[in-house]
Hints:
Largest sheet: none
Strand content: under 5%
Distance between the termini: 28 Å
Number of strands: 0
Helix content: over 70%
Number of domains: 1
Order of helices and strands: HHHHHHHHH
Low-confidence stretches: 274-283
Amino acid sequence: MFATFLVGLREGLEAVLVVSILVAFLVKTDQRRYLPHVWGGVVVAVLLSIGAGAALQYGSTKLSFTGQERFEAITSVLAVVFVTWMIFWMRVAAKRIAGHLREQLSEAIGMGPFAVVLIAFLAVVREGLETALILYAMADFADDPAASLGAAGGGILVAVAIGFGLYHGAVRVNLTRFFTWTGVLLIFVAAGLLKYGVHDFQEAGDLPGLDRTAFDLSGVLTPGTWYAEILSGMFNLTPTPTVVETAAWAAYLVPVLILFLLPRRAPAPQPDRTPAAASEPSE
């Protein structure tokens, strides 16, 4: 539940920050008449994301056992790709995303209301579709999928509350530090997803070694204990993992974690020719 809460919080806050930048730009430039178009694009993006999640769940139930295992494996690998891309993209783009969005919205206003709807839709739907895919993959190995999805919804609600507080100046959050720490945790989550996906490929017969275990922690990770549930739910740490899935877990986790934590070079300052937006959250 904590892992899905973290995903909901992280993805939700990214989407909320994007929307707050668009809204603040319209308020600052006295173009409030376009606010309904922004909210319209946001609503369509949210509905499409929910529909995508429902389609994934419905489609997987119509498959055979082997087909379902293979489908879940593919979605797990795709979720790992999206999580990895998300954390590295935000690490690089966080400093310039506000100016980029304001420039895009300024151009969209000149093109007409539909373009404004499209900008808001595209800005949010990426986060929504990522969230739907990641949560579907994570719900597969959750003991209680409903509680897992409920925790993700809680994370999204917390993200909305934080975003509202940031917009109105009632909350101050070091977003750079927030995205760094959540990024580290999500790398561990993604490694667990990859491990789960590899195991599903083995279950489907696409990869060998299903009967070769790397180690046995059954005497330590007692099923039903609180620590076993946390390690299993957060990192997909199982008592008897196979050699192949353990190798995949380590091959992903170590290099990606090192690359993410490497110091970044400060980018050259870029002049922002668009009007500054008042009350935007500091990035």
